């Protein structure tokens, strides 16, 4: 397994009171299967395409796209991958065929597994205890938010957006469950359900990831981060 933060997301307030936003984009390679977590906004399609080309990849090389939730800055480039399996929140589809719902829309359980990618790269719409990649429910920022949890028995390479490479064993790619490192004073202002959101953050922290990839910033170590409760 190999993980690359292709783009560091941003969220900054402008003098006008508007916000300049786009999300983090992460590439995960499990066996021969390439997974993209969040796509960024539609305006960033050329940047996303070029980031894959620079790694000798094409859009067709992506087999699974996981969007942590349905906000436009996270799903805007989904149409670039028509042949991939799509997970958007709790919806799972390949082209026009949608998987039967394993978690109902009203179910706000934290940590329910929606899908996995096995070590050999096979995608399954069910829990597989030994799978290195799991898509799990982490509601709060929106009611349908999901996170991608990566775990391996031996260390795998995590490439930061600045090119640094670390050897890690657990990584959580969480969308806007964390906006960025140091978001403690303001994440609740952007949350649909702050109490549930806080519980989802606690769930991820209890899993003890070596790194968290937030929705709008560089990956950080939650053990060192000032934003965590």
TrEMBL record:
It holds the Pfam family Lactamase_B. It catalyses: a ribonucleotidyl-ribonucleotide-RNA + H2O = a 3'-end ribonucleotide-RNA + a 5'-end 5'-phospho-ribonucleoside-RNA + H(+). It is found in: Cytoplasm, Cytosol. Its main location: cytoplasm. Residues 22-216 form the Metallo-beta-lactamase domain. GO terms for cellular component: cytosol. InterPro entries: MBLAC1, Metallo-B-lactamas, RibonucZ/Hydroxyglut_hydro. Endoribonuclease that catalyzes the hydrolysis of histone-coding pre-mRNA 3'-end. Involved in histone pre-mRNA processing during the S-phase of the cell cycle, which is required for entering/progressing through S-phase. Cleaves histone pre-mRNA at a major and a minor cleavage site after the 5'-ACCCA-3' and the 5'-ACCCACA-3' sequence, respectively, and located downstream of the stem-loop. May require the presence of the HDE element located at the histone pre-RNA 3'-end to avoid non-specific cleavage. PANTHER family: METALLO-BETA-LACTAMASE DOMAIN-CONTAINING PROTEIN 1. Homodimer. This is Metallo-beta-lactamase domain-containing protein 1.
């Amino acid at each position: 397994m190999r993980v690359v933060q292709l783009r560091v997301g941003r969220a900054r307030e402008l003098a006008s009171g508007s916000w300049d936003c786009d999300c983090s984009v992460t590439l995960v390679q499990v066996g021969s299967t390439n997974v993209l977590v969040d796509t960024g906004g539609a305006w960033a399609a050329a940047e996303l395409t070029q980031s894959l080309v620079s790694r000798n990849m094409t859009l067709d090389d992506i087999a699974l796209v996981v969007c942590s939730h349905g906000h436009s800055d996270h799903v805007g480039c989904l149409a670039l991958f028509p042949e991939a399996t799509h997970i958007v929140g709790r919806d799972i589809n390949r082209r026009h065929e949608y998987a039967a719902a394993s978690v109902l829309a009203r179910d706000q359980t934290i940590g329910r597994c929606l899908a996995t990618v096995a070590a050999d790269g096979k995608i399954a719409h069910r829990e597989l205890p030994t799978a290195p990649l799991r898509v799990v429910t982490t509601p709060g920022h929106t009611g349908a938010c999901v996170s991608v949890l990566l775990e391996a028995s031996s260390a795998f390479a995590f490439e930061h957006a600045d090119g640094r490479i670390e050897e890690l064993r657990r990584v959580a790619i969480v969308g806007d469950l964390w906006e960025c490192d140091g978001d403690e004073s303001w994440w609740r202002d952007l949350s649909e359900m702050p109490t549930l959101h806080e519980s989802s953050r606690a769930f991820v922290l209890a899993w003890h990831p070596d790194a968290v990839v937030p929705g709008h910033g560089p990956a950080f170590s939650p053990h060192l981060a000032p934003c965590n409760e």
